[in-house]
Amino acid sequence: MLSLHQLRCFLATYEHGSLTAAAEELGYAQPSVSEQIRGLEQTLGVQLFRRVGRGVIPTTVADTLRPHAEQTLAAAEDTRLAAQQVRRIETGTIRFGMFGVARLYAGADLVADVLERHPGVRVELIGQNSSEVHEDLRRGRLEAAMIAMPGVTSEGMEVRPVARDEVVYASADPTHLERPMTVRRLAEASLVMPETTWRTDDSVRTLLRQALQGTGLSLQTRIEVEDPEIAVELMGRGYGDTVLPKGAAEVLLPRLAPHAGFVSLRPRLYDYFAVVHRAGARLSPAAELMIELATARIQRIAEPV
Amino acid sequence: MLSLHQLRCFLATYEHGSLTAAAEELGYAQPSVSEQIRGLEQTLGVQLFRRVGRGVIPTTVADTLRPHAEQTLAAAEDTRLAAQQVRRIETGTIRFGMFGVARLYAGADLVADVLERHPGVRVELIGQNSSEVHEDLRRGRLEAAMIAMPGVTSEGMEVRPVARDEVVYASADPTHLERPMTVRRLAEASLVMPETTWRTDDSVRTLLRQALQGTGLSLQTRIEVEDPEIAVELMGRGYGDTVLPKGAAEVLLPRLAPHAGFVSLRPRLYDYFAVVHRAGARLSPAAELMIELATARIQRIAEPV
DNA sequence: TGAAAGCACAGGCATATCCTTGAGATGGCG
DNA sequence: CGCCATCTCAAGGATATGCCTGTGCTTTCA
Question: At what angle do helices B100-117 and B228-236 cross, to 10 degrees?
Fold first, then answer.
């Protein structure tokens, strides 16, 4: 079987015209190199050197094969170098999970931060939804992610909260915003809510469910949509009120519902941002980097914990 | 240390997304492949797959390294294929030794014969002079050759005569050609002879020396030149007579000395063509081919022995 | 919740690799 | 012609490699 070691011995011998010199360069004993050459000649079925008592002389076959051997070794070296570059985050792809609202807060800045420090890398920010990110983590498609809590959590995940964001009540009707919104009145409100598909996993909905738990009340959602942007726009047009993290409200309301406003809930509810990855996993340098940068970005917008 | 085997296991695993499937394809047990992957990860210092209980998932590092691994294996395969092609004389270089006059007789036809049967090869016909060819053989730079005999012969060479060519006396003066040239009259002739540099090794001169040995006579060379062509041309212009193999005379006289002719010597002298290579050497297919074709060509012109 | 799939780990065996040493052959060189 | 350099070959041993079997853990799926 052809081996890189054989090719290395071959080239060293070719260049020095001597097994002894080749062995010296490679740090082996001369019979070892001799054996490698013989093995190579046998696997290829050709004679590479003519043994002429003193020294060896490359045959024309050796002349022909030398460029191929060099290219093979160069390709192997390239493989090694590529791995080193990836290791030092000079190149390669960094894939990181981030659910919708977190991406909205910090996505562009996070990518900019990464490229600032590591101009050669590719960046993939994965995940429309926290629950999807979670699934990718569980299946191993993602190494680490920034998710919203509370939400789906399964065994074997390590979750580290890094910031919290108050959940607020937003409305286009100023009379709805005269005082903080209580849970009791919330249950009577006519709401337009996003994340329809993920309604059972969505962190805001989970928070509201928990707050309503034991009161016998439940949420009235008049309109269900997927995108927070659409929910906010509908709220702005007066089709209903909505509940969303304060950070999202500050970003979306001026743009999509300029006449609307928001108030706190009573009791206050908090959406948490957390770093999550498989429990017991040793994180790659790239993942550590992403966690560090994403945490820094999130903590500029939301309150660190 | 990076190995081709590791890369093969890596690619098989990457493509199947499973160590078990890769092992099956490669014909190994699953732990063997697992070990190879682990070894590769260790030598490269990166994680290639995420182990997720059931199955393995390639990391982005694996995505990045896969093309490099493929190229390395392709280069190795290329090396192997190049060797196979050389082995079957489909490509590569055939180097063969042939001294001046033999090349003159059969050189172009011999190369044409080779290229007819093996269109992909390169051909090198080496050697201005029999003695130089001999040195190349001894040093291993040449595998085999067609030489003139008698000439220099050292120990350790296997010499097989394949044809003989009568040595003739050529002159532009018809009175010199009225009867066969005796050795005695030869010693009195005014000669123009080629192969000045190699005069002690040249086979025609060696033959003449042997013929004159014991007579007390010696050769008179009026003019010494290197090329047989120049010697013949000078002879044609009447500056002296010359001695050369009959085959060479038949080729050169019509072209360079149209009014000259030649006669036999008495006793007749014969120049021998011989195949020669290092004793005990196993010849490559390419060398066998050259010997076969060169012999056939020479035997068409000179008398087989 | 049990069965099946898939991987890691451990133990063990066979072989390969690489080393050393020493003897023998061969060719170059003074 | 003898010495030196260099290669081959052989023997022997230490170590590494490659591979297998068996086992246990985790995850998936019915």
Answer: 120
